[in-house]
Description:
Helix content: 10-25%
Shape: globular
Distance between the termini: 39 Å
Radius of gyration: 19 Å
Structural class: alpha+beta
Order of helices and strands: HEEEEEEEHEEEEHH
Amino acid sequence: MDKIKQIEKYYEELKTINMEKTSSTENGFLSIENYNCTLNNGHTIKREKLIKNKKNGSAAIILPVTEDNKIILAIEPRVFTKETVDIGLPAGYIEENELPVISAIRELEEETGYTSNDLELLGAYYQDQGCSEAFNFYYIARNCKKIKQQNLDEGEFIKYILVTFEELEELMKKGYIKGLNSAYAIEKGKNYIKK
């Protein structure tokens, strides 16, 4: 395909060949690193990189479906949104040297008390490649079983509910689920859920 050749040419031209960290600012959970980045075309651009909790911020997002075909949704504070609360899917940051699928299992158990040994990757994408190297992994977790109580981190407040596929679609239609990560995982996982 001719377009692929053109894309590859542009990739080569715009590739970063050198990065120089010029400064950084630490502000608790979020930090910003400033860089001068030299491109293969000879130009230098300034960019800021967002660091979350001294890590790159990659996350696992889980679409959990129970043995009786209910979807588990998480409700938690999202203080910077208009509503200040969000309903979406269980999710969490991937720890250093942790496989994304292990993170998905761990986060599902911590946030809901459910577990699954039937996970399938739905996709993986950058969160915001303009200012972060964070990469999100989206999983469907089938045949989820309740094995324990929630085990939330300090300062984490999560309630969860179980809904049918029809109720999930109604929540989407009425605008209750507004987070892109949840909406994407739900859209990609629809074909895996029995209706």
